């Protein structure tokens, strides 16, 4: 009899530990899903992810305390799983709806009160609506974490109820299953779910939650109160999951479209970021204006990207004595590469972390029988198909080490990266990274760095210039130009030996290569700033890996602009 009871308890243990491991994996996926989605909606991806994970961990602790309030642990667990499944599957759509509503509220007010289109409401309830929308992902994370936190103590109490006594090492055993399951959940997220549409990832995870809940219900239904009601709840949530699986992605895209002024023609997720392509017809007789956004942040608009890329490429190429071998860091859209190829280089190495972006700007991408990226391929003039171009995938900070070991030298280096808007990018604006690039630069070459806005992020702009100088370049200068889509923008240019880039430009009688926008006079004028622009330069910190100066300046600079200026932010 004792052997039979022991065998039965082992079966219960196997089932409960398996359930706990699976649910731990689901819980971690929910944590990553909400964090990742919130980062894409709110911007500053890493900052939001860290905050979301912290909030969910705290709320899980509170949920663990709250679990002791339930007397019927079997009933509580059954209700818990069906509730988590419902919230986990629907949270992304609810957040998308709230964000979209806050975004279109100004237009609703204009239409309701017949206000002039140029009198866009910006204050009062608009600010409050946007603040509420920006906090809702954290609210959703808190509630979901609170519920997930109840699972471990409930499972532990269920085990002791089945054994009829206190079990030694009970909590440790349950936590062991939880940790293993969480590790598997992390692997599933990274390897499989990260690039899925968030609604699809949510439904898959919620379906597992619901299935586990049904298995638990089937095994322990005799111990569950209101069993019929709980079963009906499972069936209703299953219907909701089916509905979201069939329409969720379409609904999410429809609400995402409301976040953009122009028509969204394509959006997709890569392993690293969310890409959105929009188009606008200003004049039927002229080409459509195509814009690209990464995580909701403007990267370029086809009607004025030539200004940005001309200012990025033309000065550095004219300042370089030779143009045989060129290195581009970033620039996955191929637009800087397009301008470089006008100089007829022998070889161009381009380093980018996201293969999906490169592929999207290299090959036709068909959806519903239509090529939705043809305008982008035409815009970069199929630059990635040029045999002189060599693509290297990986983190540029580490990738350039192999170039140094191989003894490569480049006549010009072009750094076209997103702003240092989160800690992971900060290292690519550090003195250590620029010192590596200095080793790769030929003695008579020049390097240019995209350096954010000198108007909206002045401290960041100055920090980048000061950091390049600290890295050992002999001549470091900064210049700026207005790009209508995202405002006043700036760059940092440096030479390794000899005279400065500006002095080299002064020696020219005319531009060597015409790009259709730049003139010699315009390039020289871009180096001019107002008389007191650099008066606080001595107080600006050099950006090092361990002090995160550029990231901190960037956060502070752009936060000052929120609610004051409406800014499109290239590479931000």
Topology:
Layout: H1 2-42, H2 45-66, H3 73-112, H4 125-148, H5 151-163, H6 170-193, H7 198-220, H8 227-257, E1 263-269, E2 274-280, E3 289-294, E4 297-301, H9 305-319, E5 325-330, H10 335-341, E6 347-352, H11 355-360, E7 366-367, E8 370-371, H12 374-379, E9 389-393, H13 396-405, E10 410-416, H14 423-426, H15 431-440, E11 441-450, H16 458-470, E12 475-483, E13 487-495, H17 501-506, H18 520-525, H19 549-561
Parallel strand pairs: 5-6, 5-10, 6-9, 10-11
Antiparallel strand pairs: 1-2, 2-3, 3-4, 7-8, 11-13, 12-13
Give a written overview of the molecule.
A hairpin with a 4-residue loop joins β1 and β2. The chain has 572 residues and is α/β, with parallel strands linked by helices. α3 packs antiparallel against α7 and α3 runs parallel beside α8 (227-257). The chain is elongated, with a radius of gyration of 28 Å. The chain has three domains: 12-257, Growth Hormone, Chain: A (Up-down Bundle), CATH 1.20.1250; 263-294, no CATH class; 304-561, Vaccinia Virus protein VP39 (Rossmann fold, 3-Layer(aba) Sandwich). The strands form three sheets. A seven-stranded mixed beta sheet has the order 9-6-5-10-11-13-12, sandwiched between helices. It contains 19 helices and 13 strands. Helices cover 55% and strands 14% of the residues. The model is unreliable at 563-572 (pLDDT under 50).
């Amino acid at each position: 009899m004792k052997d039979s009871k022991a065998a039965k308890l082992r079966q219960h243990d196997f089932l409960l530990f398996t359930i706990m491991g699976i649910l731990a994996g689901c819980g971690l996926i929910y944590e990553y899903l909400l964090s990742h989605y919130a980062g894409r909606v709110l911007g500053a991806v890493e900052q939001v992810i860290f905050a979301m994970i912290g909030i969910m961990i705290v709320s899980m602790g509170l949920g663990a305390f709250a679990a002791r309030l339930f007397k019927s642990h079997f009933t509580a667990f059954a209700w818990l799983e069906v509730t988590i499944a419902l919230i986990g599957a629907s949270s992304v759509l609810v957040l998308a709806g709230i964000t979209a509503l806050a975004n279109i509220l100004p237009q609703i007010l204009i239409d309701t009160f017949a206000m002039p289109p140029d009198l866009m409401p910006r204050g009062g309830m608009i600010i409050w609506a946007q603040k509420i929308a920006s906090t809702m992902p954290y609210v959703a994370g808190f509630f979901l974490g609170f519920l997930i936190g109840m699972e471990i103590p409930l499972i532990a109490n269920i085990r002791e109820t089945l054994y009829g006594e206190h079990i030694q090492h009970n909590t440790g055993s349950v936590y062991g299953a939880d940790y293993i399951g969480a590790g598997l959940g992390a692997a599933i997220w990274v390897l499989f779910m990260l690039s899925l549409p968030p609604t699809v990832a949510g439904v898959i995870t919620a379906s597992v939650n619901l299935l586990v809940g049904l298995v638990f219900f089937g095994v322990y239904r005799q111990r569950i109160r209101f069993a019929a009601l709980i079963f009906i709840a499972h069936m209703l949530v299953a219907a909701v999951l089916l509905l979201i699986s069939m329409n969720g992605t379409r609904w999410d895209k429809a609400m995402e479209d409301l976040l953009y002024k122009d028509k969204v023609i394509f959006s997709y997720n890569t392993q690293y970021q969310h890409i959105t392509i929009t188009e606008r017809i200003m004049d039927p007789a002229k080409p459509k204006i195509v814009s690209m956004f990464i995580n909701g942040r403007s990267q370029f608009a086809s009607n004025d990207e030539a200004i940005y890329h001309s200012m990025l490429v033309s000065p550095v190429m004219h300042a370089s004595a030779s143009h045989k071998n060129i290195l581009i860091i970033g620039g996955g859209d191929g637009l800087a590469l397009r301008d470089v190829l006008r100089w007829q280089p022998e070889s161009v190495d381009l380093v980018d972390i996201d293969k999906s972006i490169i592929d999207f700007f290299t090959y036709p991408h068909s959806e519903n029988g239509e090529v939705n990226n043809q305008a982008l391929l035409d815009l970069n003039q199929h630059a990635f198909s040029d045999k002189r171009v060599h693509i290297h995938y990986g983190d540029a900070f580490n990738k350039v080490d192999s170039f140094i070991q191989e003894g490569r030298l480049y006549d010009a280096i072009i750094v076209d990266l997103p702003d240092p808007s989160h800690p992971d990018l900060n290292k690519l604006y550090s003195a250590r990274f620029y010192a590596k690039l200095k080793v790769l630069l030929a003695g008579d070459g020049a390097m240019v760095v995209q350096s954010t806005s000198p108007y909206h992020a002045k401290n960041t702009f100055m920090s980048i210039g000061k950091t390049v100088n600290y890295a050992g370049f002999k001549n470091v200068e900064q210049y700026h130009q207005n790009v209508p889509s995202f405002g006043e923008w700036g760059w940092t240019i440096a030479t390794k030996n000899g005279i400065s880039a500006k002095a080299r430009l002064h020696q020219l009688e005319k531009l060597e290569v015409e790009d259709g926008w730049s003139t010699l006079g315009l390039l020289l004028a871009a180096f001019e700033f107002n008389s007191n622009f650099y008066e606080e330069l001595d107080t600006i910190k050099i950006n090092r890996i361990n002090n995160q100066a550029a990231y901190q300046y960037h956060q502070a600079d752009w936060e000052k602009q929120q609610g004051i200026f409406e800014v499109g932010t290239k590479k931000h």
